[in-house]
Amino acid sequence: MWPRRRSSPRASRLRECIVEGCGLGGYNGRFSLQINPQAKVVMSMKIAVIGGDGTGPEVVAEGVKVLEAVAKIEGFSYELTHLDWGGDRLLKTGEALPEDGLEQLRKFDTILLGAVGHPEVAPGILERKLLLDLRFGLDQYINLRPVKLFPGVETPLKDKGPDDIDFVVVRENTEDMYCGAGGFMHKGTPNEVATQTAIYTRKGCERCIRYAFEATQKRNNPKGKRLTLVAKTNVLTTGHDLWWRTFQEVAPDYPDVETDYNHVDACCMWIVKNPEYYDVIVTTNMFGDIITDLSGIIQGGMGVAAGGNINPEPGGVSMFEPMGGSAPKYTGTGKINPIATINAVSMLLDQAGQTAAAERVMSALMQVTATKMKSQNAGKMGFSTSEVGDLVVDALV
Ligand code: IPM
Ligand code: MG
After folding, report:
1. How far is 179 from 383, CA to CA, in rounded Å?
2. Is the separation of the CB atoms in 293 and 19 below 8 Å?
3. DSSP of 351-372, one letter per residue?
4. 53 is catalytic
5. Atom 5, ligand 1: which residue's CA is nearest?
6. Domain ranges of the chain
7. The pLDDT of residue 37
8. For ligand 1, what atom is nearest to the CA of residue 127?
9. What backbone phi and psi angles, to 5 degrees, belong to 342?
10. Which of 84, 241, 256, 265 is catalytic?
11. SS3 label, residue 315
């Protein structure tokens, strides 16, 4: 067991170095796309496709177009089942998904999700029913968010490029304030009390931390394998103490990985100032939600960022999604960017052990961002949604 300190001496030195602004410098290489430690090869994938709300179905159509093309080239087969779950279904039938929805999904190898959020449905309903219930019900306890600035994509960070913005956030996905534990007393009165409890379990943090260590090993960053725990141990002295102790206890099993710790507020500053510092971050559900939006914008915004809700256990069903939301005002206009969904398809393929296909999609996508697209913002791409899909397909060969 380590002495009770906040990071290893080497990590502290590195942090001082970063604070002084010298960074790590020198490295221009790229490392493996394959970061999912438990990827398994699925030869004939059964894929559930939930287009969802707003522009979800449009971007998913482009993801499927790319999937179809890469399957032909790489020679694997798959079977798609489209599910009409989402806001429209809720308005028509009173339920966003059928009662046996989870059972249905358990029969698939993987899920591609478009977007959740309908302008006529109050906030919180579809998020809980369609997204969070699936994450919890399928025990997708990892939210994997690669943060990679693709070539040709603009970042709001001055003087930073693709070599600087390339890290991964492993966010715990089934605990914390997302559990929905809490309630009201004296609701609607001046004496109202509301509680929303953050729940952390030893099992929940340990499995997430172990996954993150394994992902760090697998990613094998030539700059050095470093896992940064992001939490708030100076204030959340019970729940995040559990995270901190678990991190320390598990770390000796991964001696080749340098361990590091940031408080979440400091992490937000460093993501902006020195994103090149990070290799893999592991964090709690709520903090992970926030820092992945911050990270999303430095990688070019929500038109680009993708994530995986992963159940890494044998037989686990994972779900991949673009991070952009349903953007209802763009529905049917052909203006929305499908790059994030195509990125999610690459992650899905990686998870299914189709590494060559995953890499082929990723390099086609980067070719398109680098040489064709004017911008990653909706309506400013220089192409329509389906033209961007076609460009990626053309770049696959
Ligand atoms: C995300 C989203 C969701 C979350 C919302 C839509 C419930 O922001 O996947 O990051 O908070 O997890
Ligand atoms: Mg979020």
Report:
1. 41
2. no
3. HTT-HHHHHHHHHHHHHHHHHT
4. no
5. 127
6. 1-30+179-299, 33-154+303-397
7. 58
8. 7
9. -65, -35
10. 265
11. coil
Beta bridge mates, 215: none
Closest listed ligand to the CA of 319 = 1
Is 218:180 a contact under the CB 8 Å cutoff? no
Hey, whose CA ends up nearest to atom 7 of ligand 1?
127
Q: Do domains 1-30+179-299 and 33-154+303-397 have the same CATH topology?
A: yes
- Active site annotation includes 100: no
Residue 250: phi, psi to the nearest 5? -85, -30
**Ligand 1 lining (C-beta closer than 6 Å):** 116, 127, 131, 289, 292
**Is CATH 3.90.1720.10 correct for 33-154+303-397?**
no
pLDDT in tens, the chain (397 residues): 333 334 443 333 333 332 222 222 222 233 344 455 555 566 689 999 999 999 999 999 999 999 999 999 999 999 999 999 999 999 999 999 999 999 999 999 999 999 999 999 999 999 998 999 999 999 999 999 999 999 999 999 999 999 999 999 999 999 999 999 999 999 999 999 999 999 999 999 999 999 999 999 999 999 999 999 999 999 999 999 999 999 999 999 999 999 999 999 999 999 999 999 999 999 999 999 999 999 999 999 999 999 999 999 999 999 999 999 999 999 999 999 999 999 999 999 999 999 999 999 999 999 999 999 999 999 999 999 999 999 999 999 9
Which atom of ligand 1 is the closest one to the Cα of 128? 7
Note every long-range contact of 8-16, with CB atoms under 8 Å and residues 24 or more positions apart, other chains counting.
8/258, 8/259, 8/260, 10/258, 11/226, 11/258, 11/259, 11/260, 11/261, 14/226, 14/260, 14/277, 15/260, 15/277
| Whole-angstrom Cα Rg for the chain | 21
SS3 314: coil
**CATH code assigned to 1-30+179-299:** 3.40.718.10
**Catalytic residue at 84?**
no
Pairing of strands 110-115, 142-148: unpaired
Give the per-residue pLDDT at 36. Answer: 56
Instruction: Answer yes or no: are the C-beta atoms of 139 and 253 closer than 8 Å.
Output: no
- CA distances to 136, 180, 230, 236, 256 from 5, in Å: 33, 33, 14, 16, 19
Query: Contact, 288 vs 118, CB < 8 A?
Result: no
CA 132, 133, 135, 136 torsion-angle sign: positive
